[in-house]
User: What shape does this take?
Amino acid sequence: MMRVVISQPMYLPWQGLFDQLRHADLFVHYDDAQFSKGGFMNRVQLKTAQGFTWLTVPVHYRRDVLLNQLEVDDAKPWRYKHGEALKQNLADLPFTGLVLDEILPLLDAAYPSLATLCITLFEHIARRLGYTTPFVHASALGIQTRASEKVCDLVKAVGGTIYITGHGAARYLDHALLEQQGIETRYMDYRLPSYPQKFGAFNPYVTMLSLLAAVGYEKASAHLTSETVHWKEFA
Assistant: This one.
């Protein structure tokens, strides 16, 4: 049994992606996916006193560009703005200093692509959480198929027998195709216990930094408790 998670790189993603990682024997960064506006590849939600806001990394967008080719627009002062927003919105939480002392220098570094930025941040947090899961870049596997066929081919290429995914895949994934290739699809069954947050009612869909600032790396695992269900049960 080899459990595989495939995900497009996301900017400082929510805790659910780390919950997926917890189930994976191998994690594939889908870095050669096409960029699409309005997704989570270059932005993440943050709570404020005025409600939710987005931290968005500006990019040099062009049609059909892949994530590992998409350049960050460093002519705009986004790094400073994101750093100040995080300091303000995570202020006074017990572990804010520890978390931001590590994350802010990573934000300030130069990266050749949006994918590299997102992957660097994600893997740093994953290792600090204690995960030893191997990471693979889809672009290194040389697979040219698309949609469900590509998912199937990626899982097969790394020897996977179980594909674990978030809820968005239910809109397009050909489960029968994967089953024909001996791959079982399982969806996340998210269980999202609350933790102390600023600015109103608890919401788990903000950046993972919110959880880490509240409880620290060592206790974060107590909040990553989601399970998986077979696709037929999920449907």
Remarks:
- The CA atoms of residues 95 and 213 lie 4 Å apart.
- Residues 114-128 form the longest helix (15 residues).
- Strands lie at 3-7, 26-29, 43-48, 51-56, 135-137, 162-165, 184-189, 227-230.
- The mean pLDDT is 96.
